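Predict structure. Chain length: 128.
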Amino acid sequence: QVQLVESGGGLVQAGGSLRLSCAASGRTFSNYYMSWFRQAPGKEREFVATISGTGSNTYYADSVKGRFTISRDNAKNTVSLQMDSLKPEDTAVYYCAVPFTIYSTTNRRRLPGSYEHWGQGTQVTVSS
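Prediction complete.
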């Protein structure tokens, strides 16, 4: 049974930093790319960042590129999201996700429908 548990969210002032973590269990995840999404109130869930199984390849949404860094530790089955220079528009619930398939195109990795398992989410609030 796959479980994803996010942590590290909180309230931070604009310009500050947070580090989110996602602890995964129930499967060997090193073969799977993994991703972070976020969802703000009244908005659709949107792609934030993805990382390949080995950690050698990453891809970011334009809105977070240069400010957020995704990483993973396969020995610990964790995926992290370092968020710097936070803006009020980054306020959302952040989710980590595991896909249905080991491989997918970059475009498909941006789609919530490509993911089989989701965590419960962690709230990030950035005050102005």
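Summary: The two ends are 40 Å apart (CA to CA).
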